Structures are given as structure tokens and as C-alpha cells.
Amino acid sequence: MTEPIPEDFDSTAHEERNVATVAATDREEFLALLPHYYRGEMSQSGNLLSRLDLTTDWAIVAVTAVLALAFQGGDVSAYLLLIGIVGVSLFLLFDVRRYRVYDASRARIRLIEENVFANALEPSDAVLEAWRAELAEDLRRPTFKVSYWEAISRRLRRIYYPLYLLLGIAWLFRITLYTPKETWTQTASVPGVSGPIVVAVVAAFFLAATVVTVWPRGREAKGEFHGEKSGRWKD
What we know:
The chain is elongated and about 80 Å long. α6 (148-175) runs antiparallel to α8. It has one domain (23-223). The protein has helices at residues 14-17, 21-25, 27-70, 79-121, 128-140, 148-175, 184-188, 195-214. The chain is mainly alpha-helical. Helices cover 69% and strands 0% of the residues.
């Protein structure tokens, strides 16, 4: 039977937060504690990745539904595809937030893998205290490891820019060849906005999306494999 918690117990007190001080100074205690933490981080990272994939799946479903509705015939307007672009943009914003949280968790995992398991297989001159202090500080005050703009650029490049292109090409086809009885200015218009203005706004949007996607940036993300060349043992 567990003892009741004292009324004056303060979990944020210095002495209560240092219950693992023994493990910090005893190598065997530390190495016994580390696998449990590693498994916890791996589980959390897996859950975050599942949420990230779920956002992507819903974005693809939304694009598929919009394309099916836009070309089913009848009185369906071409601007339904523009509504699809807005919807994909909302999914992108959700995705970027989840991607940055996932990358922060994955960065901690990589820190352990690089400094514990990699050194156990092939020892290096890495200083043990340095990476432990870095990991401890991030556990006390978690921070994002990848900037917002890099996250947008990477998610656009990997997933969302092709979805934008698909919707954009479908929209161009819809306002030109699909309705030969109307001029493109008539088909492209939306209630209250003329066709040329709509085309200009869409063109500006795709120009901005292209710039953000291809603009070169220094890589800060830790949560994904990077580079096109495989290792020698993977050839």
C-alpha cells in the first residue's frame, strides 16, 4: 500500500526534481534508466508521426473529392477547385505545426542514438557530459528545432506543392477547354469578382508557393532522412 502524499508536497521543489541525481553520477544507474526514456520518446515520436500522416491523408482525400465534384458535370462552378486550394492550405498549416513538434521529439531521439548507441558500436571522442546537458535542457524547456519557414518549405516540397499543382492544372483545364461555350474570363469568375482578377490572384499564389518551395535554406530539421545518396552498405 502506497503512502499518502503529504499536504506540503511540492513537485516543483528543487529536492523533489532531483530524485534522479544518483543516476546522473552513477554510470550503471544512468545506462539502466536511459532505455526506458528512449522507448518513451520513440513511442511519442511514433504517435506524432501518425498524426502527421493523418493530416496528409485527409489533404489527399479532400483533393480527390474536389476533383471528382468539379468534373462531374452539371452546374458545378470552376471555383470549387479554388476552394480546394484553400482547404489544402489549411491542412498545410496544421501539418507544419505537427511537423515541428515531431521534429523536436525526433531530434532528442537522434541525440541519444548518436551519443549512446552509435558510440557503443564504434566509440568516438564525444564528451558524455556535453550531450547530456543539451538533452536535459531541452527536456526542461522544449524548443522547436526547425524554423516555421523551413517546415513549410519541406512540407510543400514533399507533399503539398504537387497537390497544389494538381488542383491548379485542373482549374486551368476547367476554365478553358472544359467549357468551350464560355470565355475563360466568364468561367474563371466567382460571384462578385471578375475572371481576370481571379486569374491574377491565383497566379500570384502559385508564384509565392513556388518561391517558398524551391528557395534554398540551411537545413535544421532532425526528424527525417536527408540527401539522395544511399550509404555503401545500402547499395
